[in-house]
Amino acid sequence: MISIDEARRLVMDRVEPCPPANVSLVEAVGHALAEDVKADIDSPPHAKALVDGYAVRVADLRQASVELQVVEEVTAGQVPTQSVAAGQATRIMTGAPIPAGADAVVMREQTDLRQDQASEWVTISTKGIVPGTHILELGASFRKGEIVSSAGTLVRGIEVGLLGEVGCAEVKIVCPPRVAILATGNELVHHGQRPDPGQIRNSNGPMLVAMTSRAGAEPVDLGIACDDHDELAARIRQGLDNDILLLSGGVSAGRLDLVPEVLSSVGVQTVFHRVRLKPGKPLWFGAIGSSSKSTLVFGLPGNPVSGLVCFELFVRPAIEAMSGRPNAAVMESCVELAGNFSHRGGRPTYHPGQMRVDAEKTTVLPLQWQGSADLRALTDANCLIHFPAGERSYGPGELVKVRHLDAD
User: Fold this and answer.
1) Which of 76, 178, 298, 358 is the most buried (most CB within 10 A)?
2) Residue 305 is inside which H or E element, if any?
3) What is the DSSP code string of 8-28?
4) Looking at the structure, do residues 286 and 248 belong to the same domain, yes or no?
5) Is there a single domain that holds both residue 311 and residue 189?
6) Structural domain containing residue 217
7) Residues 190 and 233 in one domain
8) Complete DSSP assignment for 226-242
9) 398 and 282, same structural domain?
């Protein structure tokens, strides 16, 4: 057996980003940028008003209240035709360009308007008005040529808005990896089918499809394969057309645990088999292909919690790196235990836990768990608590490391 850290290193050493592709801006959501994006304009492209009010010269505001002549009205989308001279003001709307001569905007709420036969006049309360008040200067957000989104940035709705502002009708993203999922075992039936005696529903396949999608990859569900060498070989070859192949089950030491043997027969090179980890010890990992195009293969244990833990520790980081997000945040933190816990065993353990946040602090409670086949306990968990190898009793308030699970 090898350590968790060594297993992760061996996986990540074989990961290469997927190729880039140009897509429309809205299609980029959920993907990582493959290259830096630079602004083609200044933003804002002109000094603009941040409120509805009056553009004025601060030099005119030497008294607590002054009256100025309104020479023009400018709305967003218009361009001022007159400059503001001494004793004058321009009525202006939010987003409109600041006219020449003005150096502040007074909110409409600080003004009173009157009109005579010849012109309009505005009385202004000058309190708090200094140069730059309620003005966003030219280029305050970014300047032309500045990088506004770096390669590796995950595109969200926020980024779509920003990239649209700099004129990106399409962007270059890192294509998400295609991940094939194959559940193995004579005992498995489709999850929508009622099992006969001796059979169980395939829960691992749908779980891994969902987790793969949540991790940002494109899942390819290959269904179920029986514990038969020829059938496994055919289905595995089909899965090797993808960037990653996940197999569930068939990697332990039983008579029908054929997956490592069949993988070797179709040319997949073994990198490691078995990790010092609980649950998840039987994990198998290998690869096939050239340096320019290879397929990573994970043989996940058949017990569902073991498969989930191995996915979180090894498969998810590989997917994120292949998706152009090698520095994606690993959601881990140190949290105080909420109760007593005794750990026994010679392997590091990832135990289902429930983090709770109150007004003072965050704590984590180890959940009642029946072992690697007990998927029900995981539905109440929002994290996995890492307990190092060895026998030890933990008390309330002790710090433990937790790995966060998807919140939604």
Assistant:
1) 298
2) helix 304-310
3) HHHHHTT--PPPEEEEETGGG
4) yes
5) yes
6) 4-18+176-322
7) yes
8) -S-HHHHHHHHHHHTTS
9) no
